[in-house]
Specification:
mainly alpha
Length: about 70
C-alpha cells in the first residue's frame, strides 16, 4: 500500500466503490427488515444522488476544471 496521497480522481473512484458496497449492505439490511427483497425508495434516491454528485465531481477533474 502506497503512503503517497491519492489523486483526487482515484479518491472519488474509491468512494464510489465504497458507496456501492454500502448500498449492497443496505439492500441486505432492508430485505431482512422488510422482507421479500423490498428496497425503500429513500435508500434508492440517496444512493442515486450520491452517485450523481460523485460522477459530476469526477467529470470536473477529467475536464481539468480544478485547482
Amino acid at each position: 500500500m502506497s503512503l503517497l496521497p491519492l489523486h483526487p480522481t482515484e479518491r472519488i473512484r474509491q468512494s464510489l466503490r465504497v458507496a456501492d458496497e454500502l448500498d449492497q449492505v443496505r439492500v441486505l439490511a432492508t430485505r431482512e427488515h422488510y422482507g421479500a427483497g423490498e428496497i425503500t425508495e429513500e435508500l434508492r434516491v440517496r444512493a442515486e444522488s450520491f452517485r450523481a454528485e460523485a460522477a459530476r465531481i469526477d467529470q470536473t477533474y477529467r475536464d481539468g476544471d480544478h485547482d
